[in-house]
Amino acid sequence: MLRQFIEYLKNQLGCIYVWGAQGETSITEAWIRKRETSENNAQRAIALWKKRVAEKRSYVAAFDCSGLIVHFLMNNGLLKSDASSRGLFEMCREIKSRAELMPGDFVFRHNGVKIHHVGVYIGDGQVIEAKGRDYGVVQQGIDQSGKGYWNRYGRFEPLSKDAEEQLKSEFPADYIYGGATYANLRKTADSKDDYNVIGKVGKGETVLVLKLENGWADAVKKTEKSYLRGFCYAAWLERK
Question: Which residues of 100-131 are buried (b: 16+ CB within 10 A; e: fewer)?
Answer without folding.
Answer: ebbbbbbbbbbeeeebebbbbbbbeeebbbbb
